[in-house]
Amino acid sequence: MSPAWRSAAQLGLLNCEDCRLLSRAAPGMHEGRCPRCGAKLHFRKPNSIQRTWALVIAAAICYIPANLFPVMTTITPFSKSSDTIMEGVVLLWSPSSWPLSVVVFIASVTIPLAKLIALSYLLITVQRGSIKSNRERTRLYRMVAFIGRWSMLDVFVDTFVVALVQLQPLMSVGPGPGVLFFAAVVVFTMIAAETFDPRLIWNQSEVIYGRHS
Amino acid sequence: MVFATLIACSDCDLVQRLPILAPGESARCPRCGNVVASKRPDSLNRTLALTVAAAVSFLVANAVPMLGLSAAGREASTTVLGGVQVMWEQGQLAVSAIMLLAAVIAPALDIFLMLVILLAVRRPPAPNWVGMLLRFCHVIRPWRMVEVMMLGILVSLIKIAELATVITGVAMWAVAALIVLLAAISSSFDPDEVWLRVAWTEGKAGRHDLPLGVAP
After folding, report:
1. Per the CB 3.0–4.6 Å rule, which of A145, A184, A199, B158 could disulfide with A193?
2. Are B42 and B51 in contact (CB under 8 A)?
């Protein structure tokens, strides 16, 4: 770390997350309001670690029924079949449409799982006070925040298929209970990415540097 | 005289002096690599033009059918709102609400509020509520999932093609245009330009030569 580097919190400055104005905190105060835009100011997001853990755990719990329960039920006069997300991916696999099958697999199975693992890793390293690869961890956080919305893909697919295939009594498609859990995973992980404060990654390095100087 | 502004990186909190940027230039945080500022040529005018175009394509995308199918002599078609409605009728109330938010409410609010903001800042200093609207825009933006919806439409098109003949609607082209316009808006819009023009909550007119505020 360069000795000249100081964080806003070390200098007693509050950075407005909305309008990016730096304000000097009133003496003894840890929060305030931005004089320009009126947003609440904090040195770090309040209870960031606890809140993010709660959301990550909630998402991890919902991830199990999201993958076990069917997301779609197809009813014809002769048969009734239900598909989970994974079965949907397999059904989409054909010589012409396999690229879409890969996209759905990545968006619905890989990304939610990768997000849960990445957020847990960030939380654990912050809690253990790691000072290693801060830059890479910050980049990982930015990726998690950027990519999360794409998991909603399968929910959109189910919505449009269900909306269109309503040809009773010939054939109709209904949503399965998995859709709700799956949407919950995406919503929880998106909020978790918002509540996590990436500046915590840099806290410990600053404390240690401050001690040595 | 214009001072280089003192800022802190939103991702790592490093305090740094922001150099004066020429239009088209961006500045990265030296410590974590985050893009801390990007100055865009003629940002407010270009963004306004793009936002008007986005509003038009958004209205078209929601007014006309998105997808249709025909099977055994029967035809059916749906709009975005139609899809939300069927999900609601099928008992998936929460999912239907999330879809409504991601596909309709969030994009509509984002485009409408951007129009209001961009028109209001044409005569600085803009009233303080313009800043509140911009803050609200930042909150809803992650939930605006037009491009995810487009990919979802393509996948459902392939799925339905196995069961019936698919008819693509005009709305699909409007959504495609909307995605391009939204991407253009986010690359041409520089929120700092708005903040420089907004009146301060604390009674001061927007001044960019004042490096530090004082939190009450």
Report:
1. A145
2. no
